[in-house]
Amino acid sequence: MVHKKIAVLIGSLRRESYNRKMALNLIELAPESLKLEILEIGQLPMYNQDLEENPPREWVEFRQHLKDSDGVIFITPEYNRSIPGALKNAIDVGSRPLQDNAWAGKPGAVISVSMGSLGAFGANHHLRQSLVTVNVPVMPQPEAYIGGAAKLFDENGKLNESTREFVKKFILSYADWVDHLRS
Predict the structure, then answer these.
(1) Which residues pair with 138 in a beta bridge?
(2) How does pLDDT run across 14-30, given as a tens digit for each residue?
(3) Residue 41 and which of 90, 96, 101, 119 are 20 to 30 A apart at CA?
(4) Burial, 174: exposed, middle or buried (Cβ in 10 Å; 0-12, 13-18, 19+)?
(5) What are the angstrom distances between the C-alpha of 40 and each of 10, 84, 96?
């Protein structure tokens, strides 16, 4: 079986973040057709066009990893009704130089995770706006706003059964989305 390589970007840089726990559960639930790998973003120097003549090694490696991926999944918290700065920086780094946008055409999906009841709704939609600009076709349904995150994981970081079932349906829908766009 041919596996599609999917880059998973986590908006929260905190080691024990609910978003990282969600990513690890998603990786575990992914069908055999997808190979999900976390693509770290915390090491990326802030985007500055002046550095494009001799881009930092971290930018070059990040862009290449994106180019080698068949799709991308974003898992993000909400910071001030938007996405974290590290995630916005990763989008900027991957989208430059404009003629070599590493995001272009990659099937995408968004899961937003928060302790609040709205499930980071604002961040989810703000991220979708940015992804349209960098030409990432984002899976329209099912939408994933995961609220009350502090109560969803056990002491080992595993999701409760009902959330696990939702996430499994989400990742199966995403696999279909990737197949649809990549065929």
Answers:
(1) 108
(2) 999 999 999 999 999 99
(3) 119
(4) buried
(5) 7, 14, 18
